[in-house]
Design goal:
Order of helices and strands: HHEHEHHEEHEHEE
Strand order of the largest sheet: 3-2-1-4-5-7-6
Shape: elongated
Number of helices: 7
Radius of gyration: 20 Å
Oligomer: single chain
Largest sheet: 7 strands, mixed
Helix content: 40-55%
Structural class: alpha/beta
Strand content: 15-25%
Length: 253
């Protein structure tokens, strides 16, 4: 049985925390300047600053909600729609601290999940935050009670170096977007399809490159290729930065 607490116990941090941090700081500055103008100088333009600061603060809070709560809710719903039996083998590409990994593992009490990430770009930032990123990911699996189902491995998601046709489910929650080139992202999608079992499902979430993913999945002969917005709960600031989920099934042919 899936525990509703999955995603609440681990240390998953905030996605690119500098973004909402700067937004909130600027909003507070605008509040301060606005109230000063309205109160001390009786300048009506202060209300413009107050209003603009309010909008910016809402954007920052929306971002934080998507990162801290929203993504867990929408991924839980998306995984629930798959009607998993609980014995599947799954792969999480670009797993980071394991937010999606642990959600998948909670639905596979008799299955397993392999999370792969390079962790290189973030490792130097975590020496005083509970260990390196891979150590935090492993600890999160323990905190969520799914450590027995989860294995983490450092690797390159554009060249996995593992046998093909072995995973019933391949997922990526913004992980492929960390690959900086179109060729690299294309290679990551190719790898996802290669290692999926015939008939296996693929779920790839991203903000910017989902059209690339959908087109490549179709080129590779995948079936039921669909793209849909995950809704306001994964707006990283607003509807202009909405998370899109690309889903597909690998052909059995």
């Amino acid at each position: 049985m899936l525990r509703s607490s999955v995603g609440r116990r681990g240390n998953y941090g905030v996605d690119t925390p500098v973004v909402p941090g700067v937004q909130a700081a600027v909003a507070l500055m605008m509040f301060n300047m606005g109230f000063d103008r309205v109160g001390a100088r009786h300048d009506p333009q202060g209300w413009w600053l107050i209003g603009s600061g309010s909008v910016l603060m809402v954007i920052a809070l929306t971002y934080l909600h998507a990162s801290r709560r929203g993504k867990f809710r929408v991924w839980s719903r998306a995984l629930g729609e798959l009607n998993l039996v609980g014995t599947e083998r799954a792969l999480d590409l670009g797993c980071g601290r394991g937010a999606v990994t642990t959600l998948v593992a909670a639905r596979l009490p008799r299955g397993s999940v392999l999370g792969i990430d390079s962790w290189r770009s973030r490792s130097r930032l975590t020496s005083n935050r509970g260990g390196t990123e891979d150590q935090i990911a492993r600890h999160n699996a323990e905190l969520e009670g799914v450590a027995k189902q989860v294995e983490y491995k450092q690797g390159d998601i554009t060249d996995l170096g593992i046998p093909g046709n072995q995973f019933d489910l391949v997922v990526s929650g913004l992980g492929i977007s960390a690959v900086h080139t179109a060729e690299g992202r294309r290679a990551a999608v190719d790898q996802a399809v290669r290692v999926a079992c015939p008939g296996g499902r693929l779920l790839i979430a991203d903000i910017r490159y989902t059209k690339e993913y959908a087109a490549r999945l179709a080129e590779l002969g995948c079936e039921q290729v669909e793209s849909r917005s995950l809704g306001w709960e994964t707006w990283y600031g607003g509807p202009w930065l909405s998370t899109i989920l690309v889903s597909a099934r690998k052909s059995r042919a």
